[in-house]
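Exercise (ungraded).
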Amino acid sequence: MFAKPSLAPPATVHFAGIATHLRNNDAMLSVHSLLTIIATDLAWLLKFNHISHSSGLSLSFIFPFTQAKYQPVMSLSRLQQPCYLQQCPSPLSPSIPLPCSFSFRVSPYSQRQRRLRFGGHTSSVAVCCSLSQQQQSQILSSVTNGSTVSDRKEIRLGLPSKGRMAADTLDLLKDCQLSVKHVNPRQYVAEIPQLTNLEVWFQRPKDIVRKLLSGDLDLGIVGFDTFSEFGLGNEDLIIVHDALGYGECRLSIAIPKYGIFENINSLRELAQMPQWTTEKPLRVATGFSHLGPKFMKDNGFTHVTFSTADGALEAAPAMGIADAILDLVSSGTTLKENNLKEIEGGVVLESQAVLVATRKSLIQREDVRGITKEILERFEAHLRAGGQFTVTANMRGSSSEEVAARVLTQPSLSGLQVSFSLGGGVGVGPAPHLTRGGLN
Ligand SMILES: Nc1ncnc2c1ncn2[C@@H]1O[C@H](COP(=O)(O)OP(=O)(O)OP(=O)(O)O)[C@@H](O)[C@H]1O
Ligand SMILES: O=P(O)(O)OC[C@H]1O[C@H](OP(=O)(O)OP(=O)(O)O)[C@H](O)[C@@H]1O
């Protein structure tokens, strides 16, 4: 099972890490950042990631891919060369041949499967790598050069103070037995008694991202859209959990259903309309003044201008202020009510709530890593448990299949999907919890 490496493994320190997000170019950032963290504190990451040591030789990176759209491509080319890589056995994936730098794709992951991402076979790919002591020092010095995090002793977590994300964020924390206690209801600071030395600061989502960048917060929960817009691709921000399961929406271009747009149904068609000239460019209203222009430029729009507003952007075309809008959509009701439509190829990004940390805090502060681990484990436990029930029953049966067949023929349990192993119990999809009485 353990393929012979093409390069002899050096006498090395071995690293392990987990990339909890991989989005296009962020992939390299994750790998690099996390490698660095490992270099800083190997023991912590081992615990953090539940990674097992393999044959005393190497440890695994595990990359859970959650959204097919990102088509994650991983590269280790940023690592200092030469970088010795070798195949490692993994229960999660078939072997992957690994040259010094490499890329791979992972099979698409459906919406329905997303929450189970740590459990499925297609969701993860494990690779292992070993780096020499010298490479370790190089990586470490490349990220620890520059400014250090401030001298403050507490750890700061930013949570949305208002808007759509606020209540759902508190609900998620509550579901994870992390109760946010206001010291004073009129203050923006709070605490979570279960997490020692943690200060919660309530801020507008965009300010959470800004304060992460400035080093005034260590961790934050925001929508991926806000992270992308205000994070400006800054490599100091790391998404440590990319799918918290709420705040789901997409950032999308919309145009009127009527007039000159009546027969326009794709971004390509929109770009090719003869109406747009230097004198009369396509006018787009958006609150996303970083992502908007970038997206339009990447999609070949040369004659385009942008205007901004703080809300109710859907009114802009009817008011004659804009030709198109670029805004968040979830149910699509607001677009419909305003006679607007989305178009093929017009989605800039899919968003939901994410947990963000600053790379500097993670690298330089052990207590931040500890708290991050604690929060992440609670989130994962909660999110993975969603829709899962355990049925405990005394049943006769000569095999797991026979018991499963019996469970599924019970009218009261109809609709269950069994995804189990027996010997101890049967794990199923949505189901009642049976604790006593036999199902015979
Ligand atoms: N229609 C929607 N459905 C689901 N989630 C949404 C929707 N609109 C926005 N969101 C998510 O909620 C986040 C917060 O949006 P919201 O407009 O409520 O607050 P905000 O960021 O405080 O806005 P602003 O500061 O511009 O007033 C967005 O960044 C996005 O991630
Ligand atoms: O697709 P839908 O479910 O209709 O949701 C989309 C709307 O939700 C958001 O606005 P929000 O309600 O937060 O108000 P805002 O326009 O003041 O930002 C977004 O800006 C859209 O206008």
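Further reading is listed at the end of the chapter. For now, observe: The first helix runs from residue 26 to 40. The chain has 13 helices and 19 strands.
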